[in-house]
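task queued by scheduler; priority normal; single chain, no ligands, no partner chains; default sampling; output format set to structure tokens
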Amino acid sequence: MIESISPKYQMDIVQKIKDSLFEQFTSYENVEAYLNKWHQEGHDDFNYFWENFHICYRDEAKKKIDASKTLHNVDGETLLKIAIDLGIETPDYIPSVPTFKNELKSSYETASLTFEKAFRNVDTDPSLAIGLANSALESIIKEILKDSRINITWNEKETLTKLIGNICKAFGLQSNENLPKEIKTLASSLINAGKAIEDLRSDKTEFHGKTDGDLMIKDAVYAYFVVNATTTVGLFLLNFYKSYYPPVDNKPEAISNDGLPF
């Protein structure tokens, strides 16, 4: 991942991080305090001083941090981690996330909060990110299945594999004779993807408790893969739901005064 972060992308992300820092923390003092939490320094075995990046200032008294110069000293991988921590979109690395996050914020508060936490932990805690991505997808499907227009039996205790099977059945993705066989194949793939995500959460993360000998997901690249898969499946289900079950306007019709004798 480090090698794939181009200089052009880093230039762009530095500007976004700088803007976000002063928007969220408002003062030079707070921005400096935040960046100091990413700063590491020390001495090696030969007493040689090292630091992961140099903090620059706008004044000789060192009271005003130069955020731009400081950020340009930061390596690409750390820049990406800072961007994710600040909630900045990183579409080159998780392409569907910006669209997915906007969809969730509009109507799915619980799923939105869960997914935001998953997104922020992709690099720092891949195991947690996978578990939270699974939970976010479960929340979305449950909210959709609560629609009274969807006539299918299910219960709140169902996990992701069963939930995806139910929603594919409710949407007729495998039984609709008018759909091409390729779409039905993709529907089966949705179910398999859901099962794989759930199995990873259950067997390869810390969510259900593990012992020292158990295989665990610790590499962020797999967390990126799972979060991307979650957004792809989630976006399709949300878009299908909005297309075939548009929101119902329950507002009472306004009474017209036309023709009334007063």
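post-processing summary
- DSSP finds ten helices and two strands in the chain.
- The longest helix spans residues 220-244.
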